[in-house]
Every structure is written in structure tokens, then in C-alpha cells.
User: Fold this.
Amino acid sequence: MALRDRKLPRTLEAEGELFSKLRFSYVEQVTKEKFIRAIVGDPPHIVTPQENLELEKQNLAAKTQLKALKIEVADMVAELEKRGRDLSQRYDNVRVEKVKLQELPGQIEGLESRIAELKETQEPGTNPYINLPLAKTLELLDDKRRRQKELDRELEQLQSRVPRKRKEVERLEAELQPLEVKKQTSTTAAKDAKRRKEAALGGVEDDLEERGRWLRATEAALTNMLELK
Assistant:
């Protein structure tokens, strides 16, 4: 395809040059023939200045028309070249597709053989979805997609609630902070009161224990005195 695309412009250019040469030769030959006839004619054809002026006007008009025709022809040639390249590309694509289509039956046959082998080697009950017909498979696929959409929608709703829940948590934390400080203060005060109470009770017990020892000693002394009597 690339080689043909490169050859096409050169071929058209060569044909255009050949046509230009042939046209120039034709115009030259016709002009010579008219000039010779005018000279050797009887009587000879004499051109006056007025006729030359008229001929120049006609020649100018013809040149203008020829220039417009050249532009039109150039546009047509460009369009034809473009269409030629498009057709060449389409032809190559069709040829490639034709080759693929020729190979397709063999590929289909190979795939069918492979599917048959897989069905034979598959253990019963391994995957029940594999043996489903196409309609059931499509129905199951639609159901999976529908459930996926529902889950996505629920997830989106939950995500939309996250900012509000976060604000509620921040508000609760702000409300709990003074309570936590108050709790710590109360706990510290309770521990301090308990410590003071235990200290006070400890002093009374020491005094009672000392008085008990004195009473026991006194009782023992009196008992000894009575026994001696």
C-alpha cells in the first residue's frame, strides 16, 4: 500500500508533463499550419492592427478562461488523488479483512474443540455457572450488575452521611470533655478524702491499743496481788 501511494503521485506528474508536451506540440503545429496558409494563400491573408488588437483581446479572454479551467482541473486532480488514496486504503483493508475471514472458520473450529475438551475434563458440580445456557448467563449477569449498582448506591449514601456523623462525634467529644475533667476532679477529691479518713482512723486505733495494753497490765498486777493474799 505504501509503495503504491508513493508511485501514484509520480505517475500522475509524469502523465501531466507528457500531456503538457503533447499540447504544446499540437498548438505549435496548428500555429505553423495557419501561418503557412496565410502566407501561401492566394491572395495572401493580411492581418491589420485592428484585427491584431481584437485577436489579443480574444487571446486574453481565452487565457483567463484557460486559467480558470486549469484551477478547476487542478482541484479535480487533487480530489481524484485523494479518492484514489482512500480507495487504495479501503482496498487494502478489505484484503486484510478477507484474509481474516478466511482464517475465521479454522479459529472457530479450534475454539469449539477446546470448549468440548474443557467440558469433558470438567468435574461434575465444580462450577454450575459454566453449563448455564446463554439466556440464563445473561440474566445472571444482569442480576449481578443490578446488585452491584444497588451496593454502589448504598455506599454513596453512607459516604454522604460521613460528614454529618463526623460533626456529631466532634460535638459529643466537645460535650464529654468538661465531664471528663469533672470526673477526674471528683476522683481526685474522693481519693484525698479517703486518705484523710484512713489517717484519722489509724490514730484512734493506736490510742485504743495503747489503753488496752495498760488495762491488761493493770489487771495482771491486781490478780497477782490477790493471789499473794
In short: The mean pLDDT is 76. Helices lie at 2-40, 49-121, 134-228.
